[in-house]
Amino acid sequence: MSSDAVKKRKPKVIRNEEGTPETKRGRAEGEQDVLVYHEEVELEGRDPQQDYLLYKDTCAALAKLMAEIQELKSSGAKVGSVEMEERRRQCSVHFITLKKLNRLAHMRLKKGRDQTHEAKQRVDVLHLQLQNLLYEVMHLQKEINKCLEFKSQHEEIELVSEEEFFQEAPAEISRPHVTRDDHHQLTLARLDWELEQRKRLAEQYKMSLARKEKIHKAIEQKREYLSSLQPGLQNIMQASLPVQECLSMPFEQMQKQAEVARHLPPPLYVLLVQAAAYGQACDKTLSASISGDVDEAKALSRPPEDSQDDESDSDAEEEQQNTKRRRATVGVQLDDKRKEMLRRHPLSLCVDLKCKDGSVLHLFFYYLMNLNILTVKTKVSTTTDLSGAVSAGELLNSESLLNCLYASDHGQETPNPTNRYQFDKVGITTFADYVSDLGHPYVWVQKLGGLQFSSDSELMGSALSASHMERTMKLLQGRLQARLALHKQFSSLEHSIIPVSGECQHLFPAKVVSGLTRWTMMSYQEFTELGFVQHVLKAGLLRETDLFFMAVVERGTARLLAAVVVNPRYPEVMPLFSLSLHWKGERSGRTEDNLRAMESEVNVFRAELQGPRPGFQLLTNQIQRLCVCLDVYLEMESQVCDGSEGPKEFPREKMCLRTARGPSRLKPFKYNHPQGFFSHR
Amino acid sequence: MGPVELLHMSVFSQSFSPCGRFLAAGNNYGEIAVFSLSAALSPDASEGSQKPILNFTAHDGPVFTLLSTDTHLLSAGNGEISAWSWAELIKKSTKAAWTRKPSYETSLEIPEINAMIINPKDNSLIVGGGDNNIHIMDMETGIFKSVLKGHTDYIHCLCFKEREGEILSGGEDGAVRIWDSRTNRPVHCIEVFRYEECARPQFGKWISCLATDSDWMLCGGGPSLSLWHLRSMSPTSVFPLPGCQREAVFHQDLIMSVGEGPYVSHCLHGGTVKAQIPCTPSSLNTLALNLKNTEHRVMTVGGSSHQIDVFTNFSYRAFSLSF
C-alpha cells in the first residue's frame, strides 16, 4: 500500500494533508514547490510525545477492535457482516494512522541524523582549522628559534672592550651619542673600528718585512767580507810560526789543541784544562795532549734527531729482516748492545809524568759515553832496561800499577751507581771483565774529570778536579818512583844481596852473618794456603790486590821463611812479615814468643826503618833487620840450654847485657848505635 | 793503635778492682786498660762493652805485673812502680797517685819488674825483677826498707805464705828460694831442675810460676809443673803438660795453669790433667780469678793476643774483651 511512499524519498512523491485537495499535476518542477505537500514541515509542528501517545491509543484501539472481531467471529457471525466491516474499516483507518506515525518517526529520525551530521561537519571544519593554525604556529616558532640562534660571523671577531673602544676610536666612528643607546649601532661601530685597526696593522707588517729583508741582505754582505779575510789571516799565522818558535811561545800549537779540545767530552775537557794548568803552574814535568779521531768526535756532536731517525728506520728494517730469518741472532744483538753501551769517545787524553831519572809514566784517559765514567790505562817507559828481576814482574804491570792509589780504590767496578741499571739491561754482571780492555775506572780519575758520584763533598766540575789534582799527581809520581826503586831492589834481592843504602847502615851492626838466599813472588792463592800467615788473614790485613813474596834467610842449618805482604801503596803502608823457622823442628810466630817478637821488631817500628824520605828503603831495611834478628836468636838460643848439647852451632858474637828478660824470656833484638850492643825493648 | 800494633800486642798482667766490677790489664806497649765487667757481663752487652772504658799509657816499658790493694792499683814498668787510685780510674782520670823506684846498682840498663806481692802483716810491698834481687817497700812511707839477695839470675815470680810469713821466689836460675819476711834471711833453696821427675833439660831450668796453698807449693817453667809438699821438700805430683807454664793457681780442688799453648789446663792434685779448655791467644801469660764479687765470678786469661778471654763458667770460654 503506502509502503512505497516511505521508500521513495524523492520530492516527486508528495502528499499534502492540510493543503487544498490534491490534484496531481504534472511534473512541472517550477510550481511543484508551492503546491507540494511537505510532510517534513508538518513534522515540526507535532510533538513527539503526543505522537507516541497517539500511537499507543491507536494500538490499543486496534487491539480492542481485533478483539471485538474475534468475539464476533467466535460468536458465529458471518464474515462480511456490517459490524465486522465497520470494524474492519476502523482497523484500516487505524492502520493508516500507524503508518503515518511510522513515517513520521522515520522522518524524525532522518532529521535528527541530518542535524547531527551537519553539526559534525561543522565541528570537523573547525577542527581542521584549528590544526592548521597550530601547525602554522609551530612552524613560526621554529623559524623564530632559528632566527634567534643565528650567530653572525661578526661575533667571532675579537673586539676591544667597550671602554677602550670609546677611549680610542675617533668620534666619527664611535658616534657615542647614537651608540650608547643602541646596541646594534654600537656593535657596528666597533666592527668598523676593528676593521680600520687591522688595515693599519697590516700596513705596518708589510713595512717591517721589507725592512727585515734589507737588513738580512746587509748581513750577508758583511759575512762574505769576513770570510774573505780568513785566508789572509792564515797566511799571517803561517808566517809567524818561525817567530813563535824563536820566542818559545807555542801559540799555534796551543790553539790547535784548543780547537780539538772543543770536541772533547766535558769530563776530559775539565781534566785537560786542570792538568795543563797544574803543569804550567806547579810541575814542569807534566804534559798533556789529545789523541784520537777528531772527525768522529765532530760526527758525534751533530744534532741527534737525524741519526736517531736513521737508526730507528734501520732498526725497523733490521727487525723485519730478523723476523724473516730465524731468531738466532739474539745473542749477537745483546753483544751489539753491550758494545754500544761500552763505547768510548773517539778522543782520548794522554798525560805524561816525567821522573827525575828519566822514566816516564804515560796515562791514557778515556771517556765512556753511555756510562759517563772515565777510565785510565797506563804505560811506563824507562831509560834503563828493566828486565832481570823475575819477582818484579808484577811491579810495573800496567794492570795493577795504579791499584789502590788511594786506599781501597781498586778500579774493578764502576763508581757510577746508575751504571748498575744499564748493565742489567744488557746482561753485564760485572765491569771487571772489561777493565783490561777499556781501562780502570778509578775513583780518583772521576774526580780529576770533575765527575762526582758520591755525596761526600759539595764540589763539582772544575773545582773538584782542581782540589784533587795536586795530590793525585804527587801520588802518581810517588807510586812510579816507589815501584822503580822496588824493581831495582828486587833485582839485587834475587841475587841474594840486600841493598842497604849508606844512610841506613847505622841501623844494623857491621857484621851480619845470616843471609838472604831466596826472594820469590807468590800468588794470592799460594799465600793464603801457608799455615803461618793465617793470623794476618784473620786480622783482615790481606787483600787480593796486595803483592806477595817469600824470602828465605839462612844461617847454618837454620832456615827462616818469611812471607811478605806488600800493599800497593808501599811505602805509605809497611810490608807485613810472617815468620816460620825451620831449625830443630818447626816454629812460627804463633808457637814461639821470640819469633813473635822478631815479627814485631820488623813490622811495627816504621819510624826507625823508614830511612830517609821518601822511604823507599823500607823493605830492604826490614829484610836486613830480619837477618840481624835471626842472628841474635840463633846465637842466644844456643846459650840458653845449659851445656847439654855439645858444641854450639852458633857461637855468641853479639854483645848484650842480658840474654833473657821478662816473663816470656825474650831475647834482645834491639840494636843500639853507635855503642853496638843489643838490648830489650 | 793500628791493626798491625794490635796484631803484635801481648797482655802480661791483670788485676781485678777491690769491688770486683772492673778489670785492669797491662800490655807490652806499657798501656793499662780498664774494662767494666758489669757492662760486659750484663744481658744487653754489645761489642762496645767489650772494649776498655779507659786505656792509657802508664809506663814506657811493658807492664809485666799488676796488683790491687783495697784502694789502689799498683803497676810496674821499667824499674818503677806506680799506684793509681781505683776510684779515680773508674772516673777515667789517669793521674798516678805515686811513683817509686827501687834503688838499682847498675845503671846501664834499667831492669824490669816481673812480680809484686803484698805482705798483709806489715803492709809491705815485695817486688822482684831483672836485677836478681827482691826489694821490700813499706806501703805507708814508700821507703824501700830491705833487699833480699840470693838469686843469680832474674826473678820471674813471687808468692807469700801467710801462716809462716815466708816469701817464695822463683827465678831464671832455676832456684826456688824461701825467705823469712821478718828476719829477711833465706830459709831454703830448692833447685827444681835437679829433680829428675820434674826436670826438662830440653827446655831449660827457669821457674816462671809459683803458687802456694798452706803446705803445698806449685812450681813450673822449664821443668814440668809440679806439686810439692813443703814440709818434706819433695815433689808429690808432676803434671804432664807439654808447654812451659807461666801462671798457676789453686782453686777449690783444682789446679788451673796457663802457659805455652792456647789452652787453660785444669789439673787434679793427683797429677792428672782433667781438661784443657781452648782459648784465643796462641800462648797465655796471665790468669786471674775474680773471687771478690760473687755476681761477676769469672776467670780471665791473657797472652799473645790483644784479646782477653773471659770464662763465666770455668769450663768454656764465654767471650773476649779486646784492647
From TrEMBL, chain B:
<dbReference type="InterPro" id="IPR015943">
    <property type="entry name" value="WD40/YVTN_repeat-like_dom_sf"/>
</dbReference>
<keyword id="KW-0677">Repeat</keyword>
<keyword id="KW-0853">WD repeat</keyword>
<comment type="similarity">
    <text>Belongs to the WD repeat THOC6 family.</text>
</comment>
<dbReference type="Pfam" id="PF00400">
    <property type="entry name" value="WD40"/>
</dbReference>
<dbReference type="GO" id="GO:0000347">
    <property type="term" value="C:THO complex"/>
</dbReference>
<dbReference type="GO" id="GO:0006406">
    <property type="term" value="P:mRNA export from nucleus"/>
</dbReference>
<dbReference type="InterPro" id="IPR042626">
    <property type="entry name" value="THOC6"/>
</dbReference>
<protein>
    <submittedName>
        <fullName>THO complex subunit 6 homolog</fullName>
    </submittedName>
</protein>
<dbReference type="InterPro" id="IPR019775">
    <property type="entry name" value="WD40_repeat_CS"/>
</dbReference>
<feature type="repeat" description="WD">
    <location>
        <begin position="148"/>
        <end position="189"/>
    </location>
</feature>
<dbReference type="InterPro" id="IPR036322">
    <property type="entry name" value="WD40_repeat_dom_sf"/>
</dbReference>
<dbReference type="GO" id="GO:0000346">
    <property type="term" value="C:transcription export complex"/>
</dbReference>
<dbReference type="InterPro" id="IPR001680">
    <property type="entry name" value="WD40_rpt"/>
</dbReference>
